[in-house]
């Protein structure tokens, strides 16, 4: 059973700044933020406070939305989609892929694309929808799409 920490206001403020620096926005819903020792950030409804968690043996709580390592935030597929749903007009570092590139992305292939020299995390967009988050480094968008989400008939 993993140990999750309910984040306080100071921790959330720091994470909010990381999100805004990287993606231009932060989650707007009224959530409780949980973080594991591995840096995985999850969101859960505020009603969780009504439950005595010490009496339960639960493996996971909430929706896994991001992994935080140092000053880097990598969104999960679901976290990227939720962030886009809540704050589409404020997002930055959004990269649109064409039909050929998105098929390669869903096959698990890294995509060659010139986005400058700065290494950064980017949100992957296809026809107005956010489909994931990847890292751009040295002219390549590294594919972080989990194998369970890969396939040939996606697009």
Notes on the structure:
The structure is a single chain. The protein is of the alpha+beta class. The protein has three helices and ten strands, in the order βαββββαβαββββ. It folds into two domains: 1-92, Nuclear Transport Factor 2, Chain: A, CATH 3.10.450.720; 93-155, Archaeosine Trna-guanine Transglycosylase, Chain: A, domain 4. It has helices spanning 9-23, 77-87, 99-106; strands at 4-6, 31-36, 40-45, 63-69, 72-75, 94-96, 111-112, 120-126, 129-137, 140-142. The strands form two sheets. A five-stranded antiparallel sheet has the order 1-2-3-4-5. A five-stranded mixed sheet has the order 6-8-9-10-7. β2 (31-36) and β3 form a beta hairpin.
Key words describing this protein structure:
155 residues; alpha+beta; Nuclear Transport Factor 2, Chain: A; Archaeosine Trna-guanine Transglycosylase, Chain: A, domain 4; 2 domains; 5-stranded antiparallel β-sheet; 5-stranded mixed β-sheet; 10 strands; 32% strand; globular
Q: What percentage of amino acids are in beta strands? A: 25-35%
Helix content: 10-25%
CATH-derived topology of the largest domain: Nuclear Transport Factor 2, Chain: A
Mean pLDDT over all positions = 87
From the spread of the alpha carbons, the general shape counts as: globular
Tally of alpha and pi helices = 3
According to CATH, what is the class of the largest domain? Alpha Beta
Radius of gyration, Cα only, in angstroms? 17 Å
Query: Tell me about the biggest sheet?
Result: 5 strands, antiparallel
């Amino acid at each position: 059973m993993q140990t999750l920490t309910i984040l306080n206001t100071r921790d959330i403020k720091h994470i909010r700044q990381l999100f805004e620096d990287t993606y231009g926005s932060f989650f707007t819903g009224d959530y409780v933020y949980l973080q594991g020792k591995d840096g995985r950030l999850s969101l859960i409804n505020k009603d969780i406070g009504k439950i005595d968690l010490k009496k339960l043996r639960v493996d996971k709580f909430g929706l896994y939305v991001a992994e935080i390592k140092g000053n880097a935030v990598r969104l999960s597929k679901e976290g990227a989609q939720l962030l886009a749903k809540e704050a589409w007009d404020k997002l930055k570092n959004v990269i649109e892929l064409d039909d050929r590139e998105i098929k390669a992305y869903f096959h698990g292939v890294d995509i060659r694309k010139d986005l400058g020299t700065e290494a950064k995390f980017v949100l992957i967009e296809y026809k107005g929808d956010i489909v994931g988050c990847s890292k751009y480094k040295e002219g390549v968008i590294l594919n972080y799409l989990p194998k369970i989400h890969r396939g040939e008939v996606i697009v």
